[in-house]
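QA checklist item 7 of 12: single-chain prediction sanity check.
[x] sequence parsed
[x] length recorded as 303
[x] structure emitted
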Amino acid sequence: MEIERLEETDAPVVSREQPSDRDVAVRPEPQDQQAHRVEYRATVEAEYQASTRGSWDASALELRGAWEAHEAKWPASRDSVRPDRPDVSGAWRGESGRHLDVEANAEVDRGCARIREVGVNVITPAMRAIEAEDPDRHLVALEYRLKGTERVKEKVVGVLDEQPGLTRSQALCLVPDAIRFTFCYSAEQYRAGVYADLERLTARGFELAKPLKNSWESDQYKGINSQWREPTTGQLFEVQFHTQASFEAKQLSHAAYERVRNPQTPDAELPDLEDFQRQVCARIPIPAGATEIIYLPCKERDG
């Protein structure tokens, strides 16, 4: 954001009868008062975090019980989760019934290998360097930063269904979360921490591919998702911004999310799944200022 330069004529007039701040000697704060102020702030923050943490922990325990009750009511079909399975000819068929022929499947496999290489050797080191700049928050679930080949293929065939004129390689390039990272903050530091990391991502040369998706007011998911482009390779990747509670809530409701997107899930079960996700979201403490967080891509800010 460009800051307008102030000229001398823009400066406020200081009355000669009232001394300006520059004319008043500021007494340094005694060390004992400084220590007391720091200790007091740490105590208040700790109590806030403890109350928030305790409230979410109690809710999470109750919600796990609710999910167990849901699973008892709606047992998952053994066929609802299928592994990645090319047939003997080398073709691939996904859980949705979509398929890739031998040539297409081999092409997407090669593309997934390139994505993994960029994710491991280029983007991950940069993200770990960004993480090291602030010890008060951290990356979580790094072991899941690369989306499974099965899910990538499902997304590729979905893109091709919507845009049949694309090549397989073009469709693969449009999958935004084949590589994904999650920053986790305390509720108290969430707003400032997110803005600081957005600036760090930009400073590293990553390009924001589209405006942030701020879902803190959603009743199905709470958090912020962003899509970035690595400039050298053009590879898209996703960065999510969570509090500890919203991240745990995401993990807790993941099975419900998977059932919602599974075409084999009975229609009669869907309202219960969506209601469970609403219950989870309703219990997540919302950090101060989280719903107002926006961040424009550099081109939009500069233009």
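[x] summary fact logged: Residues 78 and 264 are 11 Å apart (CA to CA).
[ ] second reviewer sign-off
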